[in-house]
Amino acid sequence: MSKSVIEITPEVAASHGLKADEFQRVVEILGRNPNLVELGIFGAMWSEHCSYKSSKKWLKRLPTSAPWVICGPGENAGVIDIGDGQAVVFKMESHNHPSFIEPYQGAATGVGGIMRDVFTMGARPIANLNALRFGEPAHPKTRMLVAGVVHGIGGYGNCVGVPTIGGETTFHKSYNGNILVNAMTVGLARADRIFYSAAAGIGNPVVYVGSKTGRDGIHGAVMASAEFDDKSEEKRPTVQVGDPFTEKLLIEACLELMESDAIIAIQDMGAAGLTSSSFEMASKGGVGIELDLDLVPCREARMTAYEIMLSESQERMLMILKPGREDVARQVFEKWELDFAVIGRVTDTGRMILKKDGQVAADLPVAPLAEKAPMYDRPVQMTPKPAPLGDVPAAGDIADCLLKLLASPDLSKKDWVWRQYDHMVMADTVIRPGGDASMVRVHGTRKALAVTTDCTPRYCFADPEEGGAQAVAETWRNITATGAKPLAITDCMNFGNPERPEIMGQFAGCIEGMRKACLALDYPVVSGNVSLYNETNGQGVQPTPSIGGVGLIDDWAKAVQIAPKADGEVLVLIGETKGHLGQSLYLRELLGREDGPPPPVDLSAERRNGDFVRAEILAGRVKACHDVSDGGIAVAVAEMCLAAGRGAEAGLPGGLGHAVAFGEDQGRYILSIAAGEAAALLDRAAKSGVPAARLGQVGGDRLTFQGARAISLHDLRRAHESWLPNYMAG
Asked: Which residue has the higher pLDDT, 657 or 605?
């Protein structure tokens, strides 16, 4: 064993993210002090980002199985069966801390990393999405962060040639010091050719492919497992640098080799790089691995074992190949002008042996590093239920309130964002960004996938359990609104410091709400990511369990969007309206209040209403459909009018009132149907126990709510479309 030049003390361990008791556990496992390389490996593998030590207990409560689930959580991504021998592979992951420190590369490498999670399973990426949360617009860093993140996402995704087809962009002061950048990728694979990461076969070669290893990203996993302070920008060296053109080559090379029988196991080098990939493969396979780090392709001179193992350089993969297949694999990767190196072998020792410069740089037991990682049952202080809202004064007349809401940062049109993304590359995008869910064809078939990301953090902050349920239900509703059947979700759990009981209370509450919604909607969790310590100087973000949903429609031609097709169509409201204003955007944006309980989620009504709407769409009786969410009925109708370029005259259930117009009651949809279909549809709804009411009729060039001032489409469009471009122009 080579001696470290640095004495390993508890203070040095603390600089690697290990607390005193965790360092003591390391010493007990090894029977000695670790050297610096070994300490770095323990620090990375036991970081919150890699080990899930604060969240694992709670994540086990989520439902993860269904007849159509091929692979649930635990692999690089989740896999579901969509019939005809085809599978969909998808996952969402965070790149929050890197994106705050260096927004362009942080966001870009987030996109690259999540795509590797998908194609390492054998799937070709066919769609990207992102969920972005920024600080208040007036904050001095917000504009720069928006520009950097959006350009980073577009710059990477556009170059790789995968369409970015959906997502969300919102603003709130809780993200001033810690933005959230959650990236999601959906891929298509053969159901009988899914690749996993468990190493196997004693003596089999361990192969490194992709880009060379540099010094970028060292300590990235540890950095992502600590809260920020005023010196966070000094952590720029821990942010990786991405190369989308190399990623494109890596996708093609991996998928080409996957057509052969050469690969036994494959793993993306993500957080903690070569460390996590090698240890995870060995741990899952119950084997040992021996690596010669002198054989690792490096782009910088004299890189140490510590740097090589902890680098998070992008566009790299680790493979276990069948013996004798090295030359076949080498030819593939050299054809694509990528590095290929046999750097080690699988052993039966159960240990990770790392050699550098002819000496042993690290000798670690694999199983204890994984099995004895800390798992905390942290104190939990559940969020108290908020007090009832009480009376809410009118913030002006209905028309003025609607215009102000449409021009607010969260509800303003986000085409400034998504027009920078190539959402049509591959020529399979059926529903573009800007509606409820986006949709992409399963190439060469009539089938299509509806995909969306959703969360309402203000609901989760006020009542985590209701907010967690609503986040799941919102994705289910958005997918349903296209006519697709929701199948499964991925999640990205963004929370503050788990060492604070109130933060763990938020996490536990959101998990419980998600669990109830997944069970009620038959909508399992198949993959996900946890991002904790999202706070700066003790100020945490609003709890943000971002949910990515995937659904299937058998014939994409049956899908509907939010725009009515013709004058004379009738608008029908599905679902019950009580006028719930607690935690609404009306309350926050027009009255400056963030109080009251969020709208309750009746999961049985959610299921009943959604199943009815989907059946009507698939029967061809619905011309357009839009779910009712932020801003309530008034905003939903306005968005439908703007999408269609048509006006409408509408009443409101129970009469004109701000609560009815802008309340955010859940489980609701607005359908646009042919006038002759209205009576029959209302009758079918009544027989199904689904609340339904005629709202009004499409036509003209104005939006008029009965008893309120008419608003021209021109004024609606100017309010809706101007805020973000004007803001970004400074």
From this structure: 605
Per the structure block, which two tokens stand in for 526?
């198949």
Q: Is the dihedral of CA 507, 508, 510, 511 positive or negative?
A: positive
Taking alpha carbons only, the member of 669, 664, 658, 672 closest to residue 692 is 669
- Residue linked to tokens 């709890």: 543
Sheet-wide strand order for 525-531: 429-431, 438-441, 448-454, 544-553, 485-494, 525-531
CA–CA distance, 552 with 450 (Å, rounded to integer): 6
As a three-state string, the secondary structure of 426-439 is CCCEEECCCCCCEE
- Cα 673 to Cα 520, 649, 651, 676: the distances in Å are 29, 14, 16, 8
> Angle at the Cα of 494 (from 489 to 497), degrees rounded to 5?
145
Would you tell me the crossing angle of helices 501-521 and 603-618 to the nearest 10 degrees? Answer: 40
Tokens of 462: 């006020």
List pLDDT tens digits, range 205-264: 999 999 999 988 786 555 454 565 555 455 445 577 889 999 999 999 999 999 999 999
Identity of residue 417: V
Backbone φ and ψ for 61, nearest 5 degrees, come out as -80, -15
Structure tokens at 27: 């010493």
* Consecutive H or E run containing 617: helix 603-618
The residues annotated with a catalytic role in the active site are: 49, 95
Decide: 550 and 90 in contact? Cβ < 8 Å. yes
β-pairing verdict for 624-627 and 544-553: unpaired
Token pair 């933060």: residue: 503
Is the pLDDT at 27 greater than 60? The verdict is yes
* Burial readout 621-656 (b: 16 or more C-beta within 10 A, e: otherwise): ebbbbbbbbbbbbbbbbbbbbbbbebbbbbbbbeee
Residue 701's closest CA among 710, 713, 718? 713
Q: Which residues contact 597 (CB under 8 A, 6 or more apart)?
A: 385, 386, 388, 389, 462, 463, 466, 582, 583
Amino acid at 495: F
CA torsion, points 440, 441, 447, 450, in degrees to nearest 10?
Answer: 0
Between CA 504 and CA 55 the distance in angstroms is 9
Give the pair of three-digit tokens for residue 426.
């591959």
Is residue 77 very low, low, confident or very high in pLDDT (cuts 50, 70, 90)?
very high
Q: Are 431 and 437 in contact (CB under 8 A)?
A: yes
What is the three-state SS of 219-262? CHHHHCCCCECCCHHHHHHHCCCCCHHHHHHHHHHHHHHHCCCC
What gap in Å lies between CA 420 and CA 137, rounded to an integer?
20
Tens digit of each residue's pLDDT (9 = 90 or more) over 396-455: 999 999 999 999 999 999 999 999 999 999 999 999 999 999 999 999 999 999 999 999
Cβ–Cβ < 8 Å for 496, 566? no
Q: At what angle do helices 678-687 and 603-618 cross, to 10 degrees?
A: 140
Provide the edge-to-edge strand list for the sheet that holds 648-650.
624-627, 669-673, 570-574, 692-698, 648-650, 702-705, 711-712
